[in-house]
Amino acid sequence: MTSEPTGVDTDLTEYVLRLGDDALVLCQRLCGLVTRAPTIEEDLALANIALDLLGHARTLLAYSGTLDGTGRGEDELAYHRTERQFRSALLMELEPGDFAVTIARQLVYAHYSRLMWTALEKSSDDTLAAFGARAAREVEYHQMHADQWTVRLGRGTAESRRRMQAGLDLVWPYAAELFEPDALVDRLDAEGTAVAPARLREEWEREVAAVLDDARLTLPKPTWQATGGRDGLHTEAFAPLLAEFRSVRLQYPGGTW
């Protein structure tokens, strides 16, 4: 049996790891779409969003490695954990499908993450508060990009509207996991360190519903919801994604660039 190093805040360590894993996995998904977007401008837009998320992941994973007392850096946490050790929500690993699915996921996550980072600006943890202030400004662009494309596709041709609605219907059951009740986050929320996602849900629903109304799309009403990612239980899509992400690192261990 091993014990945690003295002074380790296991709740905060796990919370920060979740945030970092969300950013890392979604970054990898978006990177896989570069050169596959409808236009060159969208290739660049998705790449820039992915770079923002990579920056978020690097900071958060490094901070988690500091918090847990192991001193593990961002690379070790990114490349040398098993699938079950990743705590990302299933939404992030969802296979992209067509462009409308990508936009639907971005709509869900960008609104959620902007609200979350804005709330974390008031965290009692100085590092999280400072990071939240930076990240909230960055994801404003992510949200604007998703909103504009949702409206564009929803108000476009009959085919673009059909695909955008289908993308929303596919993604929506995965959105619920972002707001799942969680004892760990509730403890941190009570301490003023984190923000319980349930507190963000009403505003998130109002914001997203307004975008869908403008796009003349229907708010999905799923009959099921995804769960398990926070416990390391991932979909079949995750293993190939992870293998691709770390293939070069494992082929050239210890390599420098």
UniProtKB/TrEMBL annotation:
Keyword Transcription found: no
GO molecular function: phenylacetyl-CoA 1,2-epoxidase activity
Pfam families, alphabetized: PaaA_PaaC (PF05138)
EC number: 1.14.13.149
Translocase in keyword set: no
InterPro entries xref list: Aromatic_CoA_ox/epox, Ferritin-like, Ferritin-like_SF, PaaA_PaaC, PaaC
Top-level EC class: oxidoreductase
Swiss-Prot/TrEMBL keywords: Oxidoreductase
NCBIfam families: PA_CoA_Oxy3
Protein's name according to its UniProt entry: Phenylacetate-CoA oxygenase subunit PaaC
Organism for this UniProt entry: Streptomyces melanogenes
Lineage: Bacteria, Bacillati, Actinomycetota, Actinomycetes, Kitasatosporales
